[in-house]
Hints:
The structure is a homodimer of 311-residue chains.
Chain A: H1 2-14, E1 17-23, E2 27-35, E3 38-46, H2 50-64, E4 70-77, E5 92-93, E6 104-105, H3 107-114, E7 118-122, H4 123-134, E8 143-148, E9 152-158, E10 161-162, H5 195-199, H6 201-208, H7 220-240, E11 245-248, H8 257-269, H9 276-279, H10 282-285, E12 286-288, H11 295-308
Parallel strand pairs in A: 1-4, 4-7, 8-11, 11-12
Antiparallel strand pairs in A: 1-2, 2-3, 5-6, 8-9, 9-10
Helix pairs in contact in A: 2-3, 4-11, 7-8
Amino acid sequence: MGNALQTRVSDAAARPLFGAIEGGGTKFVLMIGRSPTDIVRRASIPTTSPVETLARCIAFFHDAQLEQRVSAIGVGMFGPVDLDRRSATYGSITSTPKAGWGNTDVVGPLTRALGVPIGWEHDVTAALLGERRWGAAAGLDPVLYLTVGTGVGAGVFVNGAPLHGLLHPEMGHLLLPALPGDEFSGVCPFHGRCLEGLVSGPAIAKRAGRPAEDLPATSPIWTMVAEYLAMALMNYSLVLSPRRLVLGGGVLHQPALLPRVRVSLRRRLADYLQHPLLRERLDEYIAPSALGDDAGVLGALELAQQAVRPT
Amino acid sequence: MGNALQTRVSDAAARPLFGAIEGGGTKFVLMIGRSPTDIVRRASIPTTSPVETLARCIAFFHDAQLEQRVSAIGVGMFGPVDLDRRSATYGSITSTPKAGWGNTDVVGPLTRALGVPIGWEHDVTAALLGERRWGAAAGLDPVLYLTVGTGVGAGVFVNGAPLHGLLHPEMGHLLLPALPGDEFSGVCPFHGRCLEGLVSGPAIAKRAGRPAEDLPATSPIWTMVAEYLAMALMNYSLVLSPRRLVLGGGVLHQPALLPRVRVSLRRRLADYLQHPLLRERLDEYIAPSALGDDAGVLGALELAQQAVRPT
Lengths: 311, 311
């Protein structure tokens, strides 16, 4: 018995540990572990200046290094970020509106200070990879992850890899038809009534005159949000033909929303796409995030593992 | 000199030949060759019954077989088609509205009669692959091919392969905002005013009261078509972040259309996507099909070559 236990402990100690950084506009979440059920250290630090914030990230992994040395670190970062490995600015945040963070090299300082491989992705793509490894998008391809909160962002996994492209998907800014009689001008500074301009937290707050979380489930505003989200999911379905749409973010905390989105999408598709998933199993086709607020940092943990996984 | 010429001729004879079938609702185009500049035989047959039409395809390749044996045949077929290799009905046309063609096995009879590998794709995806190999989408990834004619169809190449997904992309049915004052109800039997319901040949004809080809370039209907196409291309750009959008099909034969689409897209993007291609080089970003009506059959020729290409 004693020997068996000792062997198991040694096995666990021998299995590599990974690091994760989820970089957001207000805080950075840091983690050391192997999986959602095997997290050995975790911290959250406020997003201040790039120099100070990255120094605190480095200190977190340095402090842990004696007994918890990581084999690689994954980073899911607020964007836009440069993902092109052939680019001189690969690993940087590029033209973000966040003060002080424009043109900030992230992968460079981490690599120099910590000397391990660094996985690097846009934060929404990291969340997608987290959901795909351990959550609601489990192993599916193609699959879409949509987060609806202060903004609306999305990541797509297709043909074995995240979709990057010329820039990166900006699906939150989709153009949509207006609901009859809806005169709301939207809140997107670029496009007014695009999806983000209609269903983001700030859009709901502006319509309602109070924060979205204070709006009762019976408010007709939630019905409008559900209709616009369903239109967007219809367009995503037509363009990407995904096997599942996974929805996360603060706005989805309203439990009345997702069931209404499913009913609306079912009606709008009008049986045009003939697949049981789209006609009878909408609750499987449109799924809530399984990892919730941890999708991003767990996706970064998956990115770390991908960084050293033989391809 | 004589010997050199003989060597070249023998080389050409030794290089493998490929077969191509583009199956459409009104005609099938058949081809034997190697590339757009090396076509050795070509025919067009009317689409009648499945049995008769496939027999004539088989006869075309049988007749050629003595001196022009093909190593593989690619098929680009009107859909919907079953592309899932694990499916019992792989290689079939599934639930098409075309009379007599529902649940028609295509790859099975061709394989049995001709004994060569068969490449199999949706017709629009074949056209995409043709443009990607020899045309306007040359080697790009991700890239989108859109055809606007009797219907609106699209194919996407992303992360090294065509996008298939749960069913296949049905991008022609995208939901779009209405132009101010536009009361036209659209022609799509499923969705009314989706993209196809607004810009297909029949939609233009219904608005104009005459065929699209008889409508002068000065008609304001072309401006509306350009605006709706630009909205669709904006949504495709936001979802897929393609490196180029290639447009083909009969409606694009109106030369005034494409320049207006570019101007409208430039305005609608409102500089949100910051890339020179989207701000200054729209004529490169939105390109006309280079292979025109041959995109499909040449794509089928590429499919044949893929069927025997080591991966």
